[in-house]
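Recap quiz, item 2
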Amino acid sequence: MSDNGFEPKIVAFLCNWCTYTGADLAGTSRIQYPPNVRIIRLMCSGSVDPTYVLKALLDGADGVLIGGCHPGDCHYQSGNYKARRRIIALKEILKQAGLDEDRVWLRWISASEGQRFADTVTQMVQYLKEKGPNPMKREWAV
Amino acid sequence: MEPRPRIGVYICHCGTNVAATVDVEAVTEFAATLPGVVVARHYTYMCSEPGQALIREDARALGLNRVVVASCSPRMHEPTFRAASQEGGVNPYQFEMANIREQCSWVHHDRHEATEKAKALVYAAVMKAIRLEPLEEREAPVTPAALVIGGGVAGMMAALDIAEAGFPVYLVEKSDHLGGRVAELNRTFPDLEPVSEWLPALVDQVQRHPNITVYLNSRVTNITGFVGNFEATVEGAKEPLKVGAIVIATGYDVFDPRRKPEFGYGIYPQVVTTLELEHRLAAGDLTVNGKTPKDVVFIKCVGSRDQQLGRPYCSRVCCMISAKQAQLVRQALPDARVTVFYMDVRTFGKRGEEFYDEARRAGVRYRRGNVSEIYRRGDRVVVRVEDTLLGRTIEHEADLVVLAVGMEPRPEAADIAALLKLPRSADGFFLEAHPKLRPVDTAVDGVFLAGCCQSPKDIPDTIAQAKAAAASALIPLMRGVVPMEAATAIVDPELCAGCGMCVEICPYGAPGLDPLWGVSRVNAVLCKGCGACAVTCPSKAIRLQHFTPDQILAQVEALVGW
């Protein structure tokens, strides 16, 4: 069932200093990866509000990628640790609510890891294709 | 009330970099239909003067109050387009960029998919732009002094240039002398000039310079602050050193050939490194076990271009060092046979190829081959080599084997990187901000790189980079002010309950509770704009300007919706 024509949508929240720059490096190195990911630049992974992730999932994103600096490398000293705690808590809440916490990926990707960024996106697209569309998508009328 | 958004959208072809993959006309037509957009254009190079003029002239003629450019990464040209917007009368913080090159046209090849993604990115940028607020750029004063870490040739040259421009320089060196690795050399390529003819004079000049304070046997143990206003704790300095800019020139380590045990280094006295041969050439003693060598072998790329050792890069100097030392050995021992085993000969640079020719004319034999092992036979050693041109294995008896060891990052580089949050490339050397355009800058404003801490290089390249780093460090020092982060956190006192969680979480001590009103206030000078407080605030009273929840949620909606 891996390829039934389903193309997952991924929203990525990337920190300006590491992962966003790593994604740029994938570009300058012309490393190809699937176009399913759309990137939002934030200054720090520690500024990713769980509501942003929930909003993306409820709007119909099939996956959310949060990218930050490796532990110890945060431009703001400890923002990535804050992100890690928040995302762990968020995933726990998603799980408690019977929702699919595996659609949220937190990854440390540095400014020099263009290949790692491309690989991460490729893996995530493959994973979500196998998983299928996001059932959380909000379908009620307001 | 805020005037209604009037947005100009500009899609850049970047020559063919974008336009070959993304249908720029389709994206432009799409952009013109988006809310608030009054003009949408595409142009060959938006960063060129005519491209910027489009923004300026439209902004004036059409009364734009927002500008969106879809082109390269904002890390590349955001300052360019912010300036163009400002010249057109648009607040530079009401400019937004869609990255359709690095994160679209360069990484996808399907034209349809890339075009649809570009539309989504432009849509999200417009949605954010509608919600962007005007911000005011402020300036902070600069401490007119510089810190240089590392007292080798790179650090000394950078220190001298900054000092000559009239600013105090603190030069920190961990050993007990200046000169670094170059002080261990005998003669340098391609002119065979003795280091002793110029290095002591340079060291002397640095030590006597009235603007330079040298700290020997000293390390930097802590650094706080930001461009223009760093504070460094240095061993041997009574109080923290206040500086406006920092040059890192911590140099390199040489590869330890014990990590290739098949070469017998450290076991056979016949096997030495190029650095050890420098010392022997300087002392004029090339004897091994009391005998004058009759056969000398050089082995190149020891610890370089070696995937298995995790050293895939070329160390750039070993070919020239081997050519130099082979010539010097030929001069010292005219009767000895001198052979260089190489993978490739890379003698680039000014007079490099000529120097290699001179070595061969002097009787140095170059033989293409991979050395597999070295073992003892009597009082000589045997170098076992696969001749990669003949395609067979040969055994070469030698009295002296010189391993041309490569460069590697110093272990202490990790400490410096941790102090300043500096990224390093996969090989462990410090990462420059851009491989072409910002070769001495780092991800941290006000911190610059010089010499082999950035990547292996020879002395002329090191000095060129040191002088470039000094010139870059002088920019904030001479201007006297640095632009301050305008996108700081602000508190809505009506919403703030004074719980103090923002005070707890901020690593910079920017928010504080107002003793009179009991609500939080952010000291904009201290705020770095990371946004951690905004996420933490339970009543959403703090928000990070330029990255507000309504702006980001609008981006999310656009990206998921398209």
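Chain B touches chain A through 53 residues (CB under 8 Å).
Chain B has a mean pLDDT of 95.
End of item.
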